[in-house]
Design brief:
The protein is built from 9 helices and no strands. It is mainly alpha-helical and 275 residues long.
Length: 275
């Protein structure tokens, strides 16, 4: 089921590349329309999976990635439609396509686990996924800021300068994305602590719950992510770390997110998992 959204995202990605190269309004509108259609299809797929397992499908790592891609695309579309700026699509879609390839190739199986039958768990995971989607946007905005900054510094106002938003707009958008992501990450961590405490009372012998501690790689990296983005907000507000330094912090933080989201989820067996 995840193959069709992947194909549609790839077609939209080509349309965004054409728009970025030619800067034709019609190409931009076509790209947006194709992406909207891809999101609608992806929404239908997630809806079908939700009916299948009777909850939002993200207890399985591959389905969690698919849900993350859906949230990332929705976040980007909101950004695009509210700013009428489509230049970021050529940078966002490769991430969307690359990540959606994983559930398309390896869909996995989502097993029912009584421990997960709690609204606290779904709020916990939903908050984290939305936070990661915001951080992905911030990462792209940060890298875009660096590209634009380099062109201006070299006084070579060429290809990227004519196609990207101004440094001020990129910095503002990056700041907002990081702030929103940090809020949801904080909520996700707090709710996760509450859920773990409650779940250990009802299921004291569950091995996954017993593995959940600071030495759990997934939990440690999640807290490291929170610390990095907390520093990014603190540095911006108290140390004047805006512009280029703030822009570099965003992709660094998202690299840590990907470490947790991909490598640890799939390859580290000492981390808790419910699939």
């Amino acid at each position: 089921m995840n193959v069709l959204p992947l194909v549609l995202y790839a077609i939209a990605g080509v349309a965004y590349a054409v728009h970025f190269a030619r800067r034709q309004p019609q190409a931009g509108r076509t790209a947006t329309t194709l992406l909207l259609f891809a999101v609608l299809v992806h929404t239908f797929v997630i809806g079908m999976q939700t009916m299948e397992v009777r909850h939002v499908p993200f207890a399985n790592p591959s389905r969690a990635i698919s849900t993350f891609v859906w949230l990332l695309t929705l976040s980007y579309l909101y950004l695009e439609l509210t700013t009428d700026e489509r230049a970021m699509g050529v940078f966002i879609l490769p991430i969307v396509i690359g990540l959606q390839t994983i559930p398309a190739i390896y869909p996995g199986v989502e097993n029912a686990d009584p421990v997960l039958d709690s609204p606290w768990f779904w709020v916990h995971v939903s908050s984290l996924l939305f936070a990661y989607a915001s951080f992905a946007l911030a990462s792209v905005l940060g890298l875009t800021y660096v590209l634009q900054f380099k062109e201006i510094k070299k006084k070579h106002l060429g290809y990227f300068f004519a196609r990207l938003p101004s440094l001020q707009i990129l910095d503002l958008m990056n700041s907002r994305a990081v702030t929103v992501g940090w809020v949801f990450l904080t909520v996700g961590v707090i709710v996760g602590i509450i859920w773990t405490g409650q779940a250990r009372v009802t299921s004291p012998d569950d091995p996954n719950l017993q593995a959940m501690a600071l030495n759990d790689p997934k939990i440690f990296v999640a807290l490291l992510t929170w610390a990095v983005y907390s520093f990014a907000l603190f540095a911006r507000r108290t140390m004047g770390w805006s512009g280029k330094r703030a822009a570099w912090l965003s992709p660094v933080g998202f690299a840590i997110v990907l470490l947790n989201f991909l490598l640890i989820n799939y390859f580290v067996t000492t981390s808790h998992t419910f699939n």
